[in-house]
Write a structure and sequence with these properties.
SsuA/THI5-like domain-containing protein, alpha/beta, globular, SsuA/THI5, signal, D-Maltodextrin-Binding Protein, domain 2
Length: 331
Amino acid sequence: MKKWFKRAWLLLLTFALTLPLAACSTEKVQTIRLSEVTRSIFYAPQYVALAKGFFEEEGLKVELTTAWGGDKVMTALLSNGADVGLVGSETSIYVYARGSNDPVINFAQLTQTDGTFLVSRNPVDNFSWEQLKGSTFLGQRKGGMPQMVGEFVLKQHGIDPHADLKLIQNIDFANISSAFASGTGDYVQLFEPTASIFEKEGRGHIVASFGTESGFVPYTTFMAKQSFMKNNAETVEKFTRAIYKAQQWVETSPPAEVAEVIQPYFEDTGLDIIETVIERYKSQGSFATDPILDEDEWNNLQDIMDEAGELPEYVEHEDLVNTSVAESILK
């Protein structure tokens, strides 16, 4: 009887000691709801951070959803349906211009060039931008970064997108590639891996990169409402540190290794295509190597928006960009 009582007492004591430890362990993990604008190899460092456990190392559990559109990401943020958004910085300017009392702040840059490519339906020998004149061009959503950068690049090459082209902009972002595949347009502006898949299947031919033509710009950044950043400063720092680890890993790793790590996020895309895309993006410096969104890039963004007639008002870098978190991590 005494032995049974002693054994039961020891089991009860062990349970009592273990329960608080388990509770503490659970409390250390914070869930972050992350909404990405689309699913693209362009965001490879983000998937590396997820796949290699960099978020977990910081005590974060990231729940990733794909919104399929910048407006949808911003809606999720503003309605508290997401904590962090991965989307073009222009969206934060649009919200700010409407007089938001809780602006959306850019705190970590992921990509630093445009990520789209010009795809021709037919093979083109010795491509020149002049060849686009008179063609039907399947563009991106009006007011979005892809379309604004596209127009900026076209104008740099002496092409008025609204006068020299038959410009189509009324197709939803998620359906642009299928519209081109079904026969709409002579040229289309596509993200990867779609551009390379079309080329491999003979549906189109990559003839130019908008990323190499537009210069450095905060094309895609992580952002959150000002109130979230204020109330979750430590969490934002942990999130940014995980992204920085991933950026450095991608920078120093061969494309084949990066492709293998992120393939689970692109199950319908062959490993060879993923590797090709990674190599292409790395060669043109599309992946930011640190999370800092500097003032020159911010000003270049607003120049592009202004050229496209989409800049509602000029916004100072310090009003919508927080570099203090990224700078402290780099130190």
